[in-house]
C-alpha cells in the first residue's frame, strides 16, 4: 500500500461539525450557535502569541514612554494634544495644518494592507486585527477559568449552579477589567498619562475621559467577549475588501483536497480492503480549533480569517499518524489547482491521491510546492513601490518642512485708507507661526515698493521696512501690520510687494506675495 | 384568529391575514430589536414627565426637572460673563492708555470693541469703520477732536453735538451765504482746494487767501490746518469729510452741515466705551 499504516491510534476524534458551513445554514434569521474553539498548539499558534504580546505591549505601554522636549512642550513621547491642537510623536511635532502627514500614514496603511494581502493573504485578519487579538485574549481568560473546549461545552449545557455562577461571574468580571484597561489605555494618548491616571483614580478626571473609557470598555467586552466571530462575519467590511484583493498567487489557508480525499475514518480497514483513501482521517481537529466555526475542508470561505490554527491542529495529527505535515497549509490557489488537476487527471476523474504519490509513498515531483519567488511578483512589487514612495515622500516632507511659517490676510474692509498727506495705507493681519518649542526673534521685512514703509502695531514703534519681532515658543504670534505708500509713488503699487519672515539664526524663511490696493482713480 | 396555518414553502406560521390568497408570514422581530423599542417607549414616558413637552393652550407643561432652554442660555451667559470678569474688572480700573499698554488686555479690548462697534457704530461709520461722506473715516490719521486714546474715549463717551450731555463735543460753522458774496465764496473755495490739488481757476487763489484769512482763519487756522480744540477740520490735507472739490466747499460754506453722534456712555457703560476707544485707536490712525 502507498500509505504508511496508521501506527498509533492515539488521534482523538472529535464529534463536531462546523457552525458556519454553508450547507448547515438555516433560515435567514437564526439564533447564533456558540463556537467553542479548542486550544491549538503549533508554530502558528506560537506566532500568534508573539504578535499578541507585541501589539498589546505597544498599545498599553506607548503612552508611558517619556520624551524630553524642554520646558515649553509636554514630555510624553506620543501625545494627541487636542486642546492646543498639537500631535507629538517622539521627535516629531505636528501642527494642525500639517495633519496631512497623518493622512499620508493612513495612505501608507492602505497600501500596506494591499501589499500584505496580495503577498500573504489575509494576514491582517488572522494575526494583527484588534478584534482577533482581543478575542484571543478573552479566550485565554475563558479557557483559564472554564477549561478547554469539552469542559466549556459541558458547563454551557449544564444547569445553573453555584459552580457555574462562580465561573461565569469571574470570567465576565475579568473580561470587563480587560475592557476597562483597554479604554483606559486609549485616553492616555490624549493627555499626560501619569497625571491623568492620578486624576482618574481620585475621580476628578474630565467627564470625556470617563465616557471614553466607558464606551471602549463596552465595545471591547461586547465585541471581544460576546460577539466574537460575528463581528468579522457580519459587521466588518475588511473581509469583503480583502477577498477582492487576493489573486491566484496569494497565500491562503488551504485544505489540500488532492492528497486528503477521499477521507476515511477507518484508514486501516480501508487499506486492508485495498481501497484508496487520502490522508484526511476525518478527525475534525481542524473544525474544533476554528474560532470562526467553519470547516476549512469545504474550501475557501468568507469567514476564514487565515489564522492558521487549523494548520497547527492538522499538523499535530499528521505528526501522530506519521504522515507529512501540510494536509492543511498556506498555499496559493494556482498551486492548489495544479495539484488538484494532477490528482483528478485534469478534472476527468474523482480525486485519487495515488496520482500524486510515487510508489514509495512520497509526493511525486509533479506536485507543486510553494515557490517563494511567487511572493515577489510584479503586483506585489508595484504595491511595495507605491507604499515606499509615499513613505519616502512623507519622510522627505518631514525633514524638509518649515518650522517657521507666515500667514497673511489682507484687510478687506476697508481695502485702503487715505491718510491726511494723501498717501494710502493698507492693513494686513500677519500671523507668525513659530513651530518649535523655543523662543525666537523673527525679522519681518517688506521687499518691493521701495517707497513704502511698514508699521507693526503694538510691537515696534515708528515706520520702517524691517522689524525684529520676538515670538513665543510653539505659538502663533498675530500682528497687525500697516503698509503705507506715499502719493508720489502710487505707480509702485502695480508691482505689489512681499512680506518676508526670516529667522536669521536658522535661515528659515517664508514669503508672502502681497497686493497693495489704491483708490480706483489713482490706478 | 382562524386556525393555525403553516406556510408550506418556508415552514413558518402565518398571521392568518390573507389578501387574494397572499398570506402574511409571522416572522417576529428579533428580541433585541423589540427590547430596544420597549426601552425607547419607557424613555419617552420618563422624558415627557421630566422635561417640558406637552403643549397646552397657552404654554407647554413645565416638566418636573424644571428645565428651560432660556434658563440654560442665561446660565451660559453668566458663565461667559464670569470668564471675562477678570479682564473687565481690569478694564474698569484702568485708563484707556493703560489698557493699550497691556498687550493681553489690549487684544481683549480690541476684539470686544470690534463686536460692540458692529452693533452700535457700523450704522454710520460702516462695518470697517471707513465712514462715508459726512461720517468720519476712523481708520485714517485725521482727527477732528484728537486721536489720542483719552480723546477718542471722550468723543465716544459724550458724543458730538449730543443735546443733553454737558460734556459733549460742540462746534458749529456759521453759514456764510449772508456774510460773503458768491464771488468771495468762489475765491475761498479756490484757495482751499489749492492747498492740496490744482484749483480750476488759479487766478482766484490769491484773493481767496485774503478772504480766508479774514473770515475762516479764526477757526481753521491761518494755515488752514484746523483746530482740534474747536473740532475745526484740517482743510490742508487729502481727506474731505463733506465732499471733495470746490462745489462741495462752497456748499458747506453756504449751508454748513453738522453731524451728530450720540453720547454712548449712558447707553453702553464705561467698560464698553473704553473697549470701543481701544478698538478705534487700533484701526491704524491712533496717535
UniProtKB/TrEMBL annotation, chain B:
Binds 2 heme C groups per subunit. It holds the Pfam family Cytochrome_CBB3. Keywords: Cell inner membrane, Cell membrane, Electron transport, Heme, Hydrogen ion transport, Ion transport, Iron, Membrane, Metal-binding, Oxidoreductase, Repeat, Respiratory chain, Transmembrane, Transmembrane helix, Transport. Heme c 2 binds at residues 173, 216, 219-220. Its main location: membrane. One of its GO terms (molecular function) is iron ion binding. The chain crosses the membrane at residues 32-50. One of its GO terms (biological process) is proton transmembrane transport. Pathway: Energy metabolism; oxidative phosphorylation. It is found in: Cell inner membrane. GO terms for cellular component: plasma membrane. Residues 108-196, 203-284 form the Cytochrome c domain. Its cofactor is heme c. C-type cytochrome. Part of the cbb3-type cytochrome c oxidase complex. FixP subunit is required for transferring electrons from donor cytochrome c via its heme groups to FixO subunit. From there, electrons are shuttled to the catalytic binuclear center of FixN subunit where oxygen reduction takes place. The complex also functions as a proton pump. Belongs to the CcoP / FixP family. This is Cbb3-type cytochrome c oxidase subunit. It comes from Sinorhizobium fredii (strain USDA 257).
Amino acid at each position: 500500500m502507498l500509505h504508511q499504516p496508521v501506527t498509533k491510534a492515539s488521534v482523538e476524534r472529535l464529534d463536531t461539525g462546523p457552525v458556519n458551513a454553508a450547507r448547515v445554514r438555516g433560515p435567514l434569521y437564526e439564533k447564533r450557535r456558540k463556537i467553542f474553539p479548542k486550544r491549538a498548539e503549533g508554530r502558528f499558534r506560537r506566532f500568534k502569541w508573539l504578535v499578541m504580546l507585541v501589539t498589546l505591549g505597544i498599545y498599553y505601554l506607548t503612552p508611558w514612554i517619556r520624551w524630553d522636549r524642554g520646558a515649553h512642550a509636554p514630555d510624553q513621547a506620543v501625545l494627541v494634544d487636542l486642546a492646543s491642537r498639537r500631535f507629538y510623536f517622539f521627535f516629531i511635532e505636528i501642527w494642525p495644518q500639517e495633519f496631512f502627514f497623518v493622512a499620508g500614514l493612513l495612505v501608507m496603511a492602505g497600501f500596506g494592507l494591499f501589499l500584505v494581502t496580495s503577498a500573504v493573504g489575509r494576514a491582517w485578519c488572522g494575526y494583527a486585527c484588534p478584534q482577533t487579538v482581543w478575542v484571543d485574549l478573552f479566550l485565554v481568560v475563558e479557557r483559564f477559568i472554564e477549561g478547554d473546549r469539552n469542559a466549556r461545552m459541558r458547563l454551557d449545557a449544564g444547569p445553573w449552579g453555584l459552580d457555574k455562577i462562580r465561573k461565569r461571574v469571574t470570567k465576565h468580571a475579568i473580561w470587563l477589567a480587560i475592557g476597562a484597561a483597554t479604554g483606559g489605555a486609549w485616553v492616555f494618548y490624549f493627555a499626560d498619562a501619569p497625571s491623568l491616571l492620578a486624576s482618574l483614580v481620585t475621580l476628578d478626571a474630565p467627564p470625556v475621559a470617563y465616557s471614553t473609557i466607558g464606551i471602549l470598555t463596552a465595545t471591547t467586552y461586547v465585541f471581544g467577549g460576546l460577539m466574537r466571530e460575528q463581528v468579522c462575519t457580519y459587521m466588518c467590511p475588511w473581509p469583503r475588501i480583502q477577498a477582492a484583493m487576493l489573486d491566484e498567487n496569494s497565500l491562503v489557508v488551504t485544505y489540500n483536497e488532492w492528497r486528503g480525499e477521499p477521507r476515511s475514518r477507518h484508514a486501516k480497514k480501508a487499506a486492508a480492503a485495498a481501497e484508496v483513501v487520502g490522508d484526511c482521517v476525518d478527525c475534525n481537529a481542524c473544525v474544533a480549533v476554528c474560532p470562526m466555526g467553519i470547516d476549512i475542508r469545504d474550501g475557501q470561505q468568507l469567514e476564514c480569517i487565515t489564522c492558521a490554527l487549523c494548520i497547527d491542529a492538522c499538523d499535530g495529527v499528521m505528526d501522530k499518524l506519521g504522515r507529512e505535515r501540510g494536509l492543511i497549509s498556506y498555499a496559493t490557489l494556482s498551486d492548489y489547482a495544479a495539484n488538484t488537476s494532477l490528482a483528478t487527471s485534469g478534472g476527468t476523474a474523482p480525486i485519487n491521491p495515488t496520482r500524486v504519490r510515487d510508489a514509495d509513498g512520497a509526493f511525486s515531483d509533479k506536485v507543486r510546492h510553494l515557490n517563494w519567488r511567487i511572493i515577489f511578483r510584479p503586483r506585489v512589487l508595484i504595491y511595495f513601490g507605491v507604499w515606499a514612495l509615499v513613505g519616502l515622500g512623507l519622510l522627505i516632507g518631514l525633514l524638509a518642512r518649515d518650522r517657521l511659517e507666515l500667514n497673511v490676510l489682507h484687510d478687506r474692509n476697508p481695502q485702503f485708507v487715505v491718510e491726511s498727506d494723501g498717501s494710502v495705507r493698507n492693513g494686513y493681519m500677519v500671523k507668525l507661526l513659530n513651530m518649535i518649542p523655543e523662543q525666537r526673534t523673527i525679522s519681518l521685512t517688506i521687499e518691493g515698493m521701495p517707497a513704502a514703509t511698514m508699521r507693526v502695531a503694538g510691537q515696534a514703534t515708528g515706520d520702517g521696512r524691517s522689524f525684529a519681532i520676538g515670538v513665543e515658543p510653539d505659538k502663533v504670534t498675530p500682528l497687525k501690520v500697516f503698509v503705507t505708500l506715499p502719493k508720489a509713488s502710487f505707480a509702485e503699487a502695480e508691482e505689489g510687494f512681499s512680506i518676508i519672515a526670516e529667522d536669521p539664526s536658522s535661515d528659515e524663511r517664508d514669503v508672502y506675495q502681497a497686493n497693495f490696493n489704491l483708490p480706483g482713480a489713482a490706478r | 384568529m382562524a386556525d393555525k396555518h403553516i406556510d408550506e414553502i418556508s415552514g413558518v406560521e402565518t398571521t392568518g391575514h390573507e389578501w387574494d390568497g397572499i398570506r402574511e408570514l409571522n416572522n417576529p422581530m428579533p428580541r433585541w430589536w423589540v427590547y430596544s423599542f420597549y426601552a425607547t417607549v419607557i424613555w419617552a414616558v420618563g422624558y415627557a414627565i421630566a422635561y417640558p413637552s406637552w403643549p397646552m393652550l397657552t404654554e407647554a407643561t413645565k416638566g418636573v426637572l424644571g428645565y428651560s432652554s432660556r434658563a440654560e442660555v442665561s446660565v451660559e451667559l453668566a458663565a461667559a460673563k464670569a470668564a471675562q470678569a477678570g479682564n473687565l474688572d481690569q478694564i474698569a480700573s484702568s485708563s484707556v492708555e493703560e489698557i493699550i499698554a497691556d498687550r493681553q488686555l489690549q487684544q481683549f479690548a480690541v476684539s470686544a470693541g470690534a463686536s460692540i462697534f458692529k452693533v452700535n457704530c457700523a450704522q454710520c461709520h460702516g462695518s470697517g469703520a471707513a465712514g462715508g461722506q459726512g461720517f468720519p473715516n476712523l481708520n485714517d490719521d485725521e482727527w477732528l477732536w484728537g486721536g489720542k486714546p483719552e480723546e477718542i474715549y471722550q468723543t465716544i463717551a459724550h458724543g458730538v453735538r449730543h443735546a443733553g450731555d454737558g460734556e459733549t463735543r460742540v462746534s458749529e460753522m456759521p453759514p456764510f451765504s449772508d456774510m460773503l458774496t458768491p464771488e468771495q465764496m468762489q475765491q475761498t473755495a479756490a484757495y482751499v482746494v489749492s492747498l492740496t490739488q490744482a484749483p480750476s481757476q488759479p487766478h482766484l487763489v490769491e484773493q481767496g487767501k485774503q478772504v480766508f484769512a479774514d473770515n475762516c482763519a479764526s477757526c481753521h487756522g491761518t494755515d488752514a490746518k484746523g483746530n482740534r480744540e474747536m473740532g475745526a477740520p484740517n482743510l490742508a490735507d487729502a481727506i474731505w469729510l463733506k465732499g471733495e472739490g470746490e462745489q462741495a466747499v462752497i456748499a458747506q460754506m453756504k449751508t454748513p452741515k453738522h453731524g451728530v453722534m450720540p453720547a454712548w456712555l449712558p447707553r453702553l457703560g464705561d467698560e464698553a466705551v473704553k473697549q470701543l476707544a481701544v478698538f478705534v485707536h487700533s484701526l491704524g490712525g491712533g496717535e
